[in-house]
TrEMBL record:
Site-annotated residues for Transition state stabilizer: R17
Similarity field: Belongs to the type-II 3-dehydroquinase family.
Pathway in which the depicted protein is active: Metabolic intermediate biosynthesis; chorismate biosynthesis; chorismate from D-erythrose 4-phosphate and phosphoenolpyruvate: step 3/7
InterPro entries to which the protein is assigned, alphabetical: DHquinase_II, DHquinase_II_CS, DHquinase_II_sf
Lineage start: Bacteria, Pseudomonadati, Pseudomonadota, Alphaproteobacteria, Maricaulales
Protein name: 3-dehydroquinate dehydratase
SUPFAM superfamilies, per database record: Type II 3-dehydroquinate dehydratase
Catalyzed reactions: 3-dehydroquinate = 3-dehydroshikimate + H2O
PROSITE patterns: DEHYDROQUINASE_II
Gene for this chain: aroQ
Active site location: Y22, H99
Quaternary data: Homododecamer.
GO MF term (any one): 3-dehydroquinate dehydratase activity
Catalytic activity, EC: 4.2.1.10
């Protein structure tokens, strides 16, 4: 089964969106990094992005039976979505929370993570490199 790598709202704008915070790499480039890392690890990935909370929840539910692990950057929904938290709680596969920036060092409204409370581990503040590390971690956990 592939490792699902799911990305939430506004991450489609990566590279053009507050580059001083999120870097200049596009999401497509992050996906390419993940593809290359997956090959070296001998795993397959399913990399997706949506701006819609319900779609993200549908994909988390899909991961239940169809993924070996879940890497999730829920972006803004990290700090707001109890529904996403509940969906993650239903999973028995490893869940790795990823953020490009470190929300703990930013505005106080980013200090709570409903994703983190349901995740196996969290990687934050390492930019796109965090996705590669998350993949390494996922590969070692499954
Ligand atoms: C983010 C951090 C979130 O607080 C923010 O809402 C995002 C991106 C990150 O990757 O650093 O959209 O998840």
């Amino acid at each position: 089964k592939p490792v699902f790598i799911l990305n939430g709202p506004n991450l489609n704008l990566l590279g053009r969106r507050e580059p001083h915070i999120y870097g200049t790499q596009t999401l497509k480039q992050v996906e390419s990094l993940c593809e290359a890392k997956a090959i070296t690890l001998g795993v397959t990935i399913d990399f997706r992005q949506t701006n819609h909370e319900g779609v993200l929840i549908d994909w988390v539910q899909e991961a239940m039976d169809s993924a070996s692990a879940l890497i999730l950057n829920a972006a803004g929904y990290t700090h707001t979505s109890i529904a996403l938290h509940d969906a993650l709680k239903a999973l028995s596969i490893p869940v790795i929370e990823v953020h490009l920036s470190d929300p703990a060092q930013r505005e106080s409204f980013r200090h709570v993570s409903y994703v983190g409370m349901a995740a196996t581990q969290t990687i934050a503040g390492l930019g796109a490199r965090g996705y590669e590390l998350a993949l390494e971690s996922a590969a070692s956990l499954v």
